[in-house]
Design brief:
Keywords: DNA-binding, Sigma factor, Transcription, Transcription regulation. This protein is mostly helical and 191 residues long. The chain contains eight helices and no strands. 21% of the residues are buried.
C-alpha cells in the first residue's frame, strides 16, 4: 500500500469513514502479521498482539502526526507489543528428549526402528545447531531473516516499514546474514 494512500485513508478514517478504516486494516494487516511472525510468538500470543496493535492504532489514529507514515507507526507499535508479550511470558523451549519423539510403528523391524531413530536424532541435532547458531547472529539479522521466511513472504516495502531498514539494503543485508550463518555452521561442522 502506497504511503500517500495510507495518509489519505488515515485522514478519512479520522473523519469517521468506515470504508477507509476497513481499507487500512486490509492493506496493513500483512505488515502487522509479518512483524508478529518475526518475533515467533505462539498463535494465541500472535492474535493477541495483532488485536492490541490495531486497538492502539485506533486509539491514536487522530494523533498520528504524519498520517502517510501510519504503516511505520503500526509496525513499531506491533514490535513493542511483541516485546511486551515475550518479556511477560515464561517461554518453553523445544527439547531433544527421546521420550518426546513419536512412537515407532509396530510394523517396523527393530533394525529399521534404530536406523529411523538415528536419522531423526541426526536431523534434530542439525536443526538444533542451526537454531543455536542463528541465535548468535546479531538482533537485526535475526529479525530480518525471521520476517523474510514468513509465508507468504512480505514485500520489501513491508519489511522496510516493519524493521526500519531501507528497501535497497534488505537484499545485501540478507546475504551478509546468511553468509555469517553458513560460516558459523561450517565452523561447527554442521554443513
Amino acid at each position: 500500500m502506497d504511503r500517500s494512500d495510507v495518509g489519505a485513508l488515515v485522514q478519512s478514517a479520522v473523519d469517521g469513514d468506515a470504508a477507509a478504516w476497513k481499507a487500512l486494516v486490509e492493506g496493513l494487516s500483512p505488515l502487522v502479521w509479518s512483524v508478529v511472525r518475526a518475533h515467533r510468538l505462539s498463535d494465541a500470543d500472535g492474535h493477541e498482539v495483532y488485536q492490541t496493535a490495531w486497538f492502539r492504532f485506533a486509539q491514536h489514529l487522530g494523533r498520528i502526526r504524519e498520517p502517510d507514515k501510519a504503516g511505520s507507526w503500526l509496525a513499531s507499535t506491533t514490535r513493542h507489543e511483541c516485546l511486551k508479550v515475550i518479556k511477560s511470558a515464561k517461554r518453553l523451549t523445544p527439547t531433544d528428549d527421546p521420550q518426546v519423539l513419536d512412537r515407532v510403528s509396530e510394523d517396523r523391524t527393530p533394525e529399521q526402528s534404530v536406523l529411523d531413530s538415528e536419522e531423526a536424532a541426526a536431523q534434530s541435532e542439525r536443526v538444533r545447531f542451526l537454531w543455536q547458531e542463528f541465535e548468535t547472529l546479531g538482533e537485526r539479522c535475526r529479525q530480518l531473516l525471521r520476517v523474510l521466511i514468513a509465508s507468504p513472504p512480505p514485500s520489501y516495502q513491508e519489511v522496510s516499514a516493519a524493521l526500519g531498514i531501507a528497501v535497497g539494503s534488505i537484499g545485501p543485508m540478507r546475504q551478509r546474514c546468511l553468509r555469517r550463518l553458513r560460516a558459523k555452521l561450517i565452523a561447527r561442522g554442521a554443513l
